Amino acid sequence: MRALCWMGVNELSVETVDDPGLVNPHDVIVKVRLTTTCGSDLHFLGGYLPGMREGDVIGHEFMGEIVETGPEVTSVHVGDRVVVPSFIGCGTCPYCADGLHAACDTTNPNAAMQQPLLGYPTGGIYGYTHPFGGYQGSHAEYIRVPFGDVNCFRIPEGVGDEQALFLSDAVPTGYMGADFCDISPGDTVAVWGAGAVGLMAAASARIMGAERVIVIDRFRDRLDRAAKKVGAETVDYTEVDSVYETLRESTGGRGPDACIDAVGMEGHGTGVMQAYDKVKQALRMESDRATSLREAILSCGKGGVVSVLGIYGVTDKFPMAVLTNKSLTLRTAQQHGQRYMPTLFEHVLENRLDPSWLMTHDLPLTEAVRGYEMFEKKEDDCLRAVFRP
């Protein structure tokens, strides 16, 4: 089959690789219909996350059709149209039982590779480095899905392929971030980052009852989408002296009730701190440019919640004193898509949420290298490039 492979830092190639097969009796094989880029892929593409090997198939956000099932699979069948959350759950360990599928104790066969940094294993994830399991990814014609009964969700009639695609990762990540905020009617929620996850976090905050949602970014096309598609207020941080002062002034001096960081380790900012972080990151003296995280903590109102969806490594200059003295709650996780999927289907079916507009570029898999170039460089107003194997 044809697949998009990691061949080295900042080097991708569409190659011919072996078709996946059933390994365990609970596996299924999915024929991929749609798969999309994700900002977290850029971290290992740029060499900021270790553990990739030449020839690895990348991609973790996808939907498709089941074409083969193992003998122990009972709840999904050949021919089912399904969407699959990006983190792999077993469904039976204590963490999966609590709805924390991304923390699954079972699905990462390379847990020892995470031990030095994380201390405990995460669940496995498709196409996202060997410390996260070494699973082959979704930018391919076919993909093996372990624990098919747990990880494959039949897509209801009335939910289109393009809508279902983003329920794999971008939507549940954003929804989880808003859920972390314990939103009450009348709340103001600020979101750093107007990529797909940030936009879905903003949309989810609206669904959960936030009175005001403020989205911070520097790309005009993305800020325009936040305003038009979500009804958010917007801040272009390159046009203000201080995001903190801007948010403080617009909230009567209190600050937002909750802040969501949907940017992560390759964040952009202005001023001396941005230059300092960029140099240290380029020299591999730190993994993160954490401008957005620091701004969110500083800006959040007392007693509020800071929800972190951006992916970070080892972050220095972390303002712990601000968290303590403002009585802030910090909540973060990789996305537990299995936990939210039934609710997300309901929101789509009842027209409260339509994530299909996240797709700005519709490409065959043969053009995936170019798709990632546009996505990384944000050319042609690319928000998400979608590939059709």
TrEMBL record:
Native source species: Rhodococcus gordoniae
Domain Alcohol dehydrogenase-like N-terminal: 25-155
InterPro entries per the UniProt record, alphabetical: ADH-like_C, ADH-like_N, ADH_Zn_CS, GroES-like_sf, NAD(P)-bd_dom_sf
Name of the encoding gene: fdhA_3
UniProt keyword terms in alphabetical order: Metal-binding, Oxidoreductase, Zinc
GO terms, molecular function: formaldehyde dehydrogenase (NAD+) activity; zinc ion binding
Coiled-coil intervals: none
UniProt name for this protein: Zinc binding alcohol dehydrogenase
Entry's family note: Belongs to the zinc-containing alcohol dehydrogenase family.
EC id: 1.2.1.46
Residues of the Alcohol dehydrogenase-like C-terminal domain: 196-268
Cofactors demanded by this protein: Zn(2+)
